[in-house]
Amino acid sequence: MNEADLIKLVIALASAFAGWILAQFTSAAKTWAQRRKVAKLLIEELRDIEKQVGRLQMFYSRQLQIVGAQGVGNTTSTGISNPIYKNYYKDALLSLNQDQRLSFQMIHSLVDQVNTGVEELKMLTTDIQNEHAENGMSERIVKAGGIWGEKVKAEYSHCASLLWQVKYHLGNQQGPDLSPFTKAHEDFCRYLEEADGQADKLIEGGKTIDPSKFDRKYNPEAFNTAP
User: Fold this and answer.
1) How many CB atoms lie within 10 A of CB 101?
2) pTM for this entry
3) End-to-end CA distance of the chain
4) In terms of C-beta density within 10 A (0-12 exposed, 13-18 middle, 19 or more buried), how is residue 97 classed?
5) DSSP string of the chain, one letter each residue
6) Residues 68, 204: contact at Cβ < 8 Å?
7) I need a labelling partner for 144 at 20 to 30 A (CA). Which of 28, 86, 96, 160 fits?
8) Cβ atoms of residues 91 and 34 within 8 Å
9) What is the pLDDT confidence band of residue 111, given thresholds at 50, 70 and 90?
10) Pairwise CA distance, residues 197 & 24, whole Å
11) Where do the record's region annotations for Disordered lie (predicted)?
């Protein structure tokens, strides 16, 4: 091999190596960009979840008033959708720190819990309606009505727990620490206590509401007091 051939070989090898390096860099850049995009979308989804929880809280607030009126609701609600987490969370996993991972997992476990509660309440409501249609105000209806009221209150609390977790993550995106016995943990416990108190107030307030109003689709008073 003469000098000219050697130079050509070196150039060819250098070009191949440079191409390989460029390909690796391009692949890494694409992976980084994809992870960053998914991480951003996960945050946007939390904002969507926050609104969806607000909708569910309105639904459960109405059901708690019906509990106070010693009734059983005849409406149901839909659950919370979280397709980004379900389909793409794994793509962002390596770009998240431990606090972020634990917080996302906690939030979406609560989403599953809330959605399960929606379906369970729907089935319980349907069973009560069927029993009432067949046997009127039976002893079973009275017992099931008490169970229905406790279920509504529990689901209202679950929504409050989810809402706090979402707001906390959105306010502490770089480090949503969920360690026990921290200031955040104390705030969380206090928030749940306040939510339980609000549930009791809604039940108490339902005792003074005309039961016929619960059948109305449009309540102008609700819109007049809306923020």
Assistant:
1) 15
2) 0.81
3) 85
4) exposed
5) --HHHHHHHHHHHHHHHHHHHHHHHHHHHHHHHHHHHHHHHHHHHHHHHHHHHHHHHHHHHHHHHHHHTT------------HHHHHHHHHHGGGS-HHHHHHHHHHHHHHHHHHHHHHHHHHHHHHHHHHHHHHSS-HHHHHHHHHHHHHHHHHHHHHHHHHHHHHHHHHSTT-----TTSHHHHHHHHHHHHHHHHHHHHHHHHTTS-GGGGG-S--HHHHHS--
6) yes
7) 160
8) yes
9) very high
10) 58
11) 203-227
Q: Half-sphere exposure of residue 68, counting CA atoms within 13 Å on the CB side?
A: 20
pLDDT tens, 25-59? Answer: 455 445 555 667 878 999 999 999 999 999 999 99
The percentage of the chain sitting over the pLDDT mark of 90, rounded to a whole number, equals 58
Tokens standing for 157?
């609390």
Token pair listed for 203: 């039940």
Model confidence pLDDT, tens digit, residues 71-80: 888 888 999 9
C-alpha closest to that of 121 among 98, 87, 144: 144
Using CA atoms, how far apart are residues 65 and 140, in angstroms rounded to an integer? 22
Nearest-angstrom CA–CA distance, 105 and 107 = 5
- Cβ-in-10-Å burial (0-12, 13-18, 19+) of 118 comes to buried
DSSP assignment of 16-83 equals HHHHHHHHHHHHHHHHHHHHHHHHHHHHHHHHHHHHHHHHHHHHHHHHHHHHHTT------------H
In angstroms, rounded to a whole number, what is the distance separating the alpha carbons of residues 72 and 129?
Answer: 9
